[in-house]
Each structure stands twice: as C-alpha cells, then as structure tokens.
Amino acid sequence: MAEAADFQGTSPSPARRWLRRTGALLAGAPLLAGLCQLTTAAPAQAADDSGSVSVAVDTLSPSAPTDGDTLTVSGTVTNNGKQAVTAAHVGLQVGPELNTRSSIDTVTENKDSLQGATGSEVGGKYVAKFAKLTPGVAEPFSISVPADELDLGDAGVYQFAVSLSGKTSAQPWDRTLGIQRTFLPWQSDEVDTKTKTTFLWPLLSTVHMTAETGSNAQQTPVFLNDDLAEEISAGGRLDQMLSLGENLDVTWVIDPDLLASVDAMTRSYRIQGEGDTTIAGTHQALAKQWLARLQKAVADKEVVALPFADPDLASLAHNGTSVTGSLSHLDEATDVAATTVRTVLHVTPSTDFAWPVNGAVDPSIVKVATSAGADKVITRSDSLQETAGLSYTPSAARPIGGGTTAVVADARLSTAFQGDLTRASSATLAVQRFLAQSLALDLQTDNQRSIVVAPQRMPTASQADAMAEAITALQGGNWSQTQKLTAAAAAKPDPEATTKVPSASAYPSSLRKQELPKSAFQQIASTQSKLDNFKVILSDQSRVVTPFGRAVNREMSTSWRGRATEASGFRSDVEAYLDELISQVSLIDKSETKLSGRSATIPVTVQNNLVQGVEHLRLRLTSLSPNRLEIGGSSYYEQPVEVSGGHSQTVKFTTTANANGKASVVAQLYTEDGQPYGDDVRFDVKVTEFTATVMLVIGGGVLLLVLAGFRMYTQRKRAAARAAEQNGPDDEATEAVDGPENPGGPEDRLEEESGTGTEEGAPEQPSDPTADTATENADPSGTGERVDR
C-alpha cells in the first residue's frame, strides 16, 4: 500500500522505506514459520515411509471394469500412530499406465510406500470422509465411482491407489498418511487376438493311507489319521477346491492316490489310534458324496492324471537313480494312475504329462520324467528362462529334444496366489495383480499365443478362493479365452523361444534341500527286496503286493517336501509292518534233543500265522558236525513245505549217528530260488549210540547164550558117557571116528537153536541197524526232548 501511494518516477522517503521494510518483515514472519515447519516435517514424513495409517482394500468390483461399469472399492483404514487423525478422507487415485510386466512388479514391491507417483485424485463426491481416526481402531469405507469418471485412456493396465489424507496435532496440515497401490486392468472392447489361457486346477493332498490292511476278506484299510475327512468336509480345503472348480473352465490335475483314498473311505475303514490300536472310521457318507460331486464336475472336462501318489521327480533324478529299482516304482505309479482314475471317476485321463516341483527342471529331471512314458514336462518360465531377448512372452510349448515337449507355465501368473491370502485385502491384491499381468501379456503383441498357469500343488482354501475369483474375471474379460492343456502342449511353438534345458547347477538350492535323500531310496529298495522275497511264498500275492506296492509309491510322494521327519517315520512304519508279516511264517524254537541209537527222526515245526496259506518253501536241516551226525545220509537235507493259513506243519528228518557226543543242527526256511526266509533255528542233538540200558540188555543176552551153550555141552557130555558105558570100547571108538560126519551133531544143533541161519525170516543180528522212531508223533520237541528209537 505504501508502494502504491508513491508517485511514479519519484523515490520513496527514508521514513517510508523504513516502514515498508518493517512491514515486509512482519508480513513474512508467518511465512518463515511455515517454511520452518515444512523443513522439519519433510524428514519426519520421509522417515515414516510406510505411513502411520494402513489402508486395506478388501474388495474391488468389478476387477476389470469396462465402459458403463461402476467401480466399487471398499476396505478399512487403521490409525497405527499414537495421535488421532482429524479431517481425514479416503480418496481414489488413477496413476499412469504401466506398459511392461516388470513395471507391474515394481509397483507390487512398493504397494504401500508413500514415495512415488500415484496420479491425481478423482475427488469430488467420490471420497469417504472421517472426522476423526482414533489410534488402533479400524474404520470401514466404501466408494463407488462410475468408470467414466476415472478418465481412463487406451486399453492397458493402470496403477490404482487408495489413499488416506488427514492431519495430526503434531502436524496440523493435510497430508497423505497411508496408501495402498493396486492395478486396474482396462480393456473395454474385445481384442482381435485373444490370448489362449490354460489354468491347471490341482486336486492333490498329502499321504493318508498306511500299508496296513485288515485280515478280513475285504482287507479293511488303515489310515494315518482322519485329516482327509476334514479336507473333504464342508469348508475344508478339498471341498473348496471341488466347489469352486466345478464352476470353472479349467484342466483338472489329479493325484490318483487321493481318489483311491477317498474311495477307500466309502467302505469300512479304520484309523490309527494310540499305540497299536485302531478305531473305526465314520465318514463313509461324506466320502461318497464328495466323489459323486467330483464325478459330475469332471464329466465333460479335461483330466490329467499324475503318477500314483505324485512321486517327487527331482528327488528321484538327483538321489534315487543310483539305487537299483527306484525307477521301476515310477513305472508302476504311472501304470496304475489311469486305471485308478477310470475306476473311480469313470473318465479316461491323460497320463503323458510330468510335473516336477515348482516346474524346476534340469537334464536329469527331464530324463526321469520321461522314463515312465510321459512326453510332456510341465516346467515354469523362471526355470526355462528366455535367453533370446524377446520383447514378449512366447507360447508355452517348446520342443526340447528326444520327442519331448516342455510346457512352460508363466511364472508371474503361476505364483500370483502364493502366501497368506486369508485376509480379504491380500486376496484382492493377488487377483488384481494376476489380471494386470495377464492383460499386459496380451498387449505385448498381436501374435496368437498359448499361455499356461500352473499354481502351487496344494492351494489353501483362501488361495483357492482368490484363484477362482481371478479365473472368473479372466474368463469374463475381453482379452483371454480358455484352452485345454493338451491343446496348449500341441500348439505351434515360437521359433524364437528358448528350448535349452538349464544345467543341474542352475537348479534352485532351496528346492534341493527339501528333496528325499539317497538313504530314503535305499530304505525303499530294502523294503521292496523283502516284499519280493515274501510274495513268492504266498498263495494269494495280491493281498500283500497291492497295498505294499502303493505304500512304496507313497514313500516317494512330493507331499513329503518340508516334512522330512514325517517321511522317515512313514517309511520305517511300512518296513516294520512288512517285517511283522514276514515273521508270521516261522520255525518254532527247539531245545536240546537227545538221540539214542544209530538212527532216529528229528521233527521241526513250521508255524503260519497269516490268514492265507504259504507254499513254495523248503525246510533245510543242516548238521554242523556231519562226522558225528548225518541228516538224510549227508550233512543236510531239505523238504518242501506248504502250510495253510493259521496252521502249523511238522516236518521230520531221518538222522544217522556215527559217534557219541553233541552235534549242533541248524533249521532254515528257503524260498524255491534259494533265498533264506526268516530266522534260522539252532539246537543241539546229544548222540548216545549205546546207552547203559542197551548194554545191559545185550550183556544179559550174551550171558543167556553162554549159559545155554554150557548146559547143552554138559548134557551132551553126559549122554556120550552113558553111550560109551552101554556100547563098550569098540562102539565108542567107531563113534569117535564117525563124529564129524554126523549131521545131527551137537554143533549143528547149537547153530540151529542159536538162530544163526540165513533163511528168510531169520532174526536180525545184533550188528544190524535199529528201526527209526515211529512217525506218528508229529509234536515239536519240548525242553530236553528225547527222540527214542
């Protein structure tokens, strides 16, 4: 005002100059104070980069709006500071268009940072106001705005932010205190060339069944726990997967072991209890209902069956191939997969796809994956990475040699739903990120491409909800169309796309640490060897081979990753149960046996406590002292054995003693191919060829013979004397001359009476071998048992 009063062309007076300067200083004081406040506030705001108020976007509907839609955004704001926030409002900000997929990644990493561009606020009536936000209290908000008011331009992905602005007593000016960034896919019209998208819907679970079955005709299965019933119950993880998947156009990827387990629950089953006890399962109706729904859901959909129990291909490739027989289990798991799916679901699945963990591959994994007949390997773009510098994402199918096709799933889309999505805000952000990446991919080029999405193997219920929401929005959008996995694998590959499988050194160390160790495959091989030796003696092999064969498949399951202790325990339990069954066919222990005489029979008893009969066994009895005791005329002798279920059989062996003393004997069962079966039984045989009683009998007999001969000699002597007295000297002399030719002489009669003739039916000589022990007695020897002659 002073300057206005001055005349033009004149200089102001000194008094006026002083007044003007003083007024300027006074007028600038508030401005200087404000500048000081701004100077001190800027570092504070920069230090609190994440904001003192958290903004959660719980819903954003529709996820991909088009012309004429009204966008509704709702969520909560929570004051995490110590001071109340006043004059606050929630506003919507539309940021710049994001032209690359990597720029979407950058925004995701900084989704709640106050730094960076956010675009202008829509403002006006499209805000939610709060007079006061109390510390620690979450306040809901909801804003609806027509899509036309968002001032969106061409089709593309736009950064979309929901922010809260307000004041505090310490900083009483309006500023942004919290923000949540997400994405707004905008494709108002259908594109000319849509991306063909395949979404895998995995129906897998952990291992639930043991190798144990009941002894009844139905072989009632035994489950580890009742967790499977919980998963298929209302609200359970598998129930959610089924309820959501039956309304989606997806490719079902199923583990046949899950089907077999639920199918087993439809009948009588038992659950492991405390110790060695089991309890009856009670969820037959639930299992029947779930299977019926699944049968209906997949009736007209594509079904891919993984090998039985989803074997860990990477573990097998890195640690199992050096163990004999490991790859044969993969063959068996593949063979039984199609049969199981057809039997339970009444559909014919595709079995020529292999799916390594997280799609990570190297040459050894590809070799193992295709060894069982699969010619398509589902991998991921963060493993089979592009090296040609393409400006776009190529189609999934890649020929990698040997007639094998790598089906490369998109890593960004496949990992979009990992992590904790139990909070609505986390799930919403995941859905918007997935749709943004999908649209950005489609806008890269006008070329037709086939993209595959392979999510985590076992999504949680909340992850499945988010997946279903994203798929529903994608299938209702304007830039994508559904395609089956088999069609994606058969699509024409991009000639510029990489086809080189990464080396073994490129395999992620984090995944390698979770693999089954070599010792696991060695234990599996040990179990299989015992099973092979056991099954050959069974009259009904299927009762044992089938449940144990599937248990061995389960020992190699991918679901054991991250659960090394549980995996080891399961393997040990399977082997221990097999050992228990094998021990049910055994030899009954024997104590020392006494053998009287030169030959005798030794009984050995085979006990079979199985419910089925055993055959093709041979029992061998071996003398460790063959010079003292022979068995069957040699050092050992063996005989075939067949024993009915729940019975025993006694086998008798003829032995010959050559000398007195103790001889050790070994009884051992063998299979027909000469493999020992079970534990041997060792016992001693005490050999006494002539006992005191036998010597007494023989001595008595000899004495009687001597006495009889002496008496006969005396009688003949007397008779000769009497004849001599009656005939005189001449007759006596004649008799003496003719005596040797007399056929009826005393020597002849002695020989005749003493029984030394050789005619048929003549008595045995004392030197002849004695008879064997009677064969009627089949009882096993008891303690100190005497085997009589």
UniProtKB/TrEMBL annotation:
Annotated transmembrane regions: 690-710
Record-given protein name: DUF6049 family protein
Record region (Disordered): 721-789
Signal peptide start-end: 1-46
Polar residues: compositionally biased ranges: 767-780
Protein's UniProt keywords contain Zinc: no
UniProt source species: Streptomyces doebereineriae
Alphabetically ordered keywords of this record: Membrane, Signal, Transmembrane, Transmembrane helix
